[in-house]
Amino acid sequence: MRAFTRGLIGIAGFLALWELLGRSPLLPADSLPPPSVVFGELVRQLISPDFISHVVATVLAVLIAIGIAIAIAVPSGLVLGSVPAVRHATRAVIEFLRPIPSVALIPLALVMLGFGPETKITLAVYAALWPILFNTIYALDELDPLLVETSRVFGTGRVGVLFRVALPSALPFVLTGIRLAATTALIVLVSVELMAGADIGLGYFIMEARSGPGRMDQVLVGTVVAGVIGVLLNNGLERVRRRWVAW
Questions:
Q1: Where is the ABC transmembrane type-1 domain (predicted)?
Q2: Domain contains 5
Q3: 79 in a domain, yes or no?
Q4: pTM for the full model?
Q5: How big is the chain by its Cα radius of gyration, in Å?
Q6: What are the pLDDT digits (tens) for 83-127?
Q7: Which of 45, 50, 103, 131 is 20 to 30 A from residue 217's alpha carbon, by CA?
Q8: By residue range, what is the domain housing residue 197?
Q9: In a domain, 29, yes or no
């Protein structure tokens, strides 16, 4: 309760500072609408079917991207973490691909996949792979050899050790990687929607609001909603981690 109260105080202080800056004569008019204006516009947008469709499109794309990234990264991490020969053979390729920003691949993705939702989902999957993959690999590095030897004494095969010993031990690390990957996927999705000319999504809504009359209040509405989605994803996955791996 004490932490919750401190959090509310921090939010209230941030909003008060934002209100003062938004109404300050030091800034150009309409460059930074105060929160009283932004939240009024947010209420109007939340009853708009068009805005809701943008939000739903972004959230669905994030969930799809995370699901695909988990399906690829967790098995790959288990293999790379448990088979040293495969890990050493692929290390150079992985270390080359990992630092490449997803947004740098937008032109290539547009040529290969076009302007549909599969482009932004593919780039979000690419960005979300690495936190999950490396957390899984590093988790197997921390696996207690005594657990593996004990399971083998009781007749557990290599695959059984992988799924009955290694995966449960790696689960806390994997869930942490998923939590990091979720916010990364959201950032990439909104960025691609902004830069690649998507036809739906929060990034498209922000781009539309910025062009034409330049409604900065609507730009900040899209930004605030994207931030709220990120907070909800992070807190939800953190609750899942605490519930599933409280030990």
A1: 55-237
A2: no
A3: yes
A4: 0.84
A5: 22
A6: 778 878 888 888 888 888 888 888 888 778 777 788 888 899 999
A7: 103
A8: 36-244
A9: no
pLDDT per residue as tens digits for the range 212-241? 666 788 888 888 899 999 989 988 888 888
Does 3 map to a domain?
no
Lookup: tokens for 55: 């939000």
Task: State how far the alpha carbon of 6 is from the alpha carbons of 10, 11, 20, in Å.
Answer: 6, 9, 21
Contacts 24+ apart (CB under 8 A), 162-170: 162/78, 162/82, 166/78, 166/81, 166/82, 166/140, 167/78, 169/139, 169/140, 169/142, 169/143, 169/144, 170/77, 170/78, 170/81, 170/135, 170/136, 170/139, 170/140, 170/143
Structure tokens at 153: 């004494």
User: Alpha-carbon distance 161 to 159, whole Å?
Assistant: 5
Q: Are the beta carbons of 226 and 45 closer than 8 angstroms? A: no
CATH number of the domain enclosing 151: 1.10.3720.10
